[in-house]
Amino acid sequence: MEMKVFVRSLLRWWFLPIVALAAAVAGVLIYHRVTDKTEAAATVAVIQSYLPPPGEYVPAQIGFDALAQSDELSQRIAVRLDDGTTPQQVRDWLSIKVKPALNRSSPSLLYKVSIKHSDRDTAIGVANIATEEAQKLFVEFNTPSARDVRRAFQNEIDTAQGNVDEARAALITFEVQNDAYALTQRRDQKLGLVSQLRLAQVGSRPAGRVDASTTTGASLTAAQEQLSRLLALQPDYDRREFEVGLAKAAVGRLSARVTDLEEAGPGVAKALAEARSQLEEAQTQYATSLQDLAAFQVQNNVAQLPGSIQSQMALVNQLTIADASSQANAGNIQSALAAEQSELDRLISLEPRYTELNVSLQKAQTQFASLQQKIIDVIAGQTLPASAQARLMQDAQVQSSLLFALLTYGLAVFVALFSSITAVYLLAHFERVPVTVDDLEREFCAPVIGRVARVAR
Hints:
The chain is α+β, with helices and mostly antiparallel strands. The protein contains 14 helices and four strands. Helix 3 packs across helix 4 and helix 8 (183-202) runs parallel beside helix 11 (305-327).
């Protein structure tokens, strides 16, 4: 189609583009009036370290933007609003997306928490509430509780406890079968006693019996029986003392954790409550272990078993020397010396195996105590870093929708012009336009000199 024909048709149908433009602008205006909502958005930064510290327990994390799909978050926001808003309405308003950043070298991401609402003030208020609740929920989801940590280490705990029980049972069995309670202490006692008997043997002189020998011998027998009783109590006492030390260490670590959380401010209130609960449990366990140890001491009439054993060994040594000396007979001293030397040799022969079993028990106890300490450190080490992971960078502010409005109006104008011009083109193509004088002159290359009127029929 010639441009002249199209222009002539466009001039003839000039009102079509104007009507199309008016309809398009009116339609877009109505669309914005009906659907436009104010968008308020806050910015949250999720801080993440490049690499975790050595030995730190790092659980799998839920992304901050995934919280937008959480029914729990919508429920919390609806409860905070307390105006009849349903969680489903909150989910329709809420959006959490990653904000594009120019610097990609940092693993920390920025998130946009936005709320769309017809009322401006409501949008800002709900956006601030949504940001606060999302931060709290993010910390809760990504912070392992004490129960979670202990469950994760349960296999290691069971193994370590089994190793301790096995090593203790092996040592006790060896001590019972070989009468080797507190072997190291008894060896030292026998060494001192043998030395004193040898000195007494050198200085002995022939003499008659002394009446005090009978009394000394009875006292020696009673002292040896008491020493044997105290030595038999050693394994149970050591076990209870180990439990007291373990509980005391846990109380110390948890007390320090509570102090740190108290200084951290109100942002870690939930973690502080959980830490205090754990501290109360540890204090209860500590008190129970102390009561168990005290009951054991009262039941067996012994205040400080290691000190009592040392004192009793010294008493047995003194009574043995006194008994041998009271005999005033070199043969009796020699007999006592031979008996004590035989016992000393027996204890020395048992010492390698005893040392091996004792070292195994100490190693197992150390590993068990280290594991318990590690669990406490993991629990304590996760709270403060996790509470600082989601930080508010910018409070909720109204977002400008000018760009979107310009795009919609521009698109509407383009569509209106295109459709109206297309309509004019089609009309020009299919409509029969009367031939003018200019058309005839241009077609025949000659001037028109007259017209013949159409004969009416």
